[in-house]
Amino acid sequence: MQDDDGLSGRRTPRRRSVRRRFATLYAGLFLASGTAMLAVVAFFAGGSIQAVPGPGSGAAVPGVSAAAAARIASLEHQLTQAQSRQTQQLLLGSAVGLVVMGLLSLLLGWYAAGRVLRPVRAMTAATRRISADNLHERLAVDGPHDELRDLGETIDELLGRLERSFAAQRRFVADASHELRTPLATMRAAVDVTLGKPGPLPEQTRVLAGRVRTELDQVDGLLDGLLTLARAQHELPSPEAVPLGELAADALAARELSAARALDAAPVAPVRGNRTLLRRLVENLVDNAVVHNEPDGWVRVTVRETSGVPASVEHVEHVELVVENSGPTLTHEQVEELTRPFRRAGPDRTGGSGAGLGLAIVAAVTEAHHGRLDLHAREDGGLRVVVTLPAAVGTEVQA
């Protein structure tokens, strides 16, 4: 059974905090230096303690009576014991103070690490906000000219190069759309004029013209797919509330499939996005399910809310589009290749009029709408494609 991420048996590695490591390192260094200092103090304090004979055990001193000598020895012994107790109390107090300061150093290290890493957190948050649609934004790290500011300026320079690269790619897409469609239209018109001339044409010429027209249609479809793929990867024009159920019904009707039999769509919230791109997404999924199917196979399209709540609930978060079909059994490796441009899986996916861009366009459109695409090979053959898209914010679901 697969989890929500479409993966099984894969665990997300535990995130290790740099701030925690800095605080632990700071406290560890403090405790190590404090322990070393306490050991030096104990060494010198212990060296000053000497055993003094107890009362009555001292040697006789000339000119001093035995009672006076015993009294002196007793006082020396008491003084030694007092010094020993003071040294022990000093070492005990130092050890307790070291433990307390160690805990305090941990808190101070946590605070200091947070202050030092604050610019890094700000750069991380700003970098996450920047995408292909707002590459003009910059981190603009202020403060002293240190290593962190150098890092921010380096990232800003990288964003500048990316912005110029994306702009050049958009210009190329626009130029290619004009420069390539014009000669294609000219060649198609020439073929039509040739076929429309009065009088009989040689059969070989007619066959050749028909073949050229077919190839021109395939090239035109390939060009349209490439332009759609590039447009979906770089921009999301004119977002609006789009009902996926209606798009699915239209796509099934265009393929002359009965929506009543193949479509399972309860009233759900619309998704927010570009209607043209989302229509292309749905059409590509339905076309893929119909073309790469088995004879007398079936196609099932489902539109539903991921939360599974009734349609009377006012607000939903995501809408799911599920397209399934029968067909040959696919391996996991083949399924992983399907979203790559010009890739097909299986012997029945190597021919035909398709350009191998259908699911690649679906993946690009899904990513442009901040959604998720999951492909699963069905156990009894065929493919199950799940597209999860965010619902339009603040949209009420009509029962």
UniProtKB/TrEMBL annotation:
InterPro entries with a match to the protein in the record: HAMP_dom (IPR003660), HATPase_C_sf (IPR036890), HATPase_dom (IPR003594), His_kinase_dom (IPR005467), HisK_dim/P_dom (IPR003661), HisK_dim/P_sf (IPR036097), Sig_transdc_His_kin-like_C (IPR004358), TCS_sensor_his_kinase (IPR050428)
Compartments where located: Cell membrane
Pfam families, alphabetized: HAMP (PF00672), HATPase_c (PF02518), HisKA (PF00512)
Keywords assigned by UniProt, alphabetized: Kinase, Membrane, Phosphoprotein, Transferase, Transmembrane, Transmembrane helix, Two-component regulatory system
One cellular-component annotation, GO: plasma membrane
Signal peptide region: none
Name of this chain's protein: histidine kinase
An example Gene Ontology molecular-function term: phosphorelay sensor kinase activity
UniProt cross-references to SUPFAM superfamilies, sorted A to Z: ATPase domain of HSP90 chaperone/DNA topoisomerase II/histidine kinase, HAMP domain-like, Homodimeric domain of signal transducing histidine kinase
Domain called HAMP: residue spans: 114-167
Enzyme class: transferase
Reactions that this protein is recorded to catalyse: ATP + protein L-histidine = ADP + protein N-phospho-L-histidine
Enzyme Commission number, as recorded: 2.7.13.3
Annotated Histidine kinase domain residues: 175-393
Main subcellular localisation: membrane
Entry superkingdom: Bacteria
Regions that span the bilayer: 21-45, 90-113
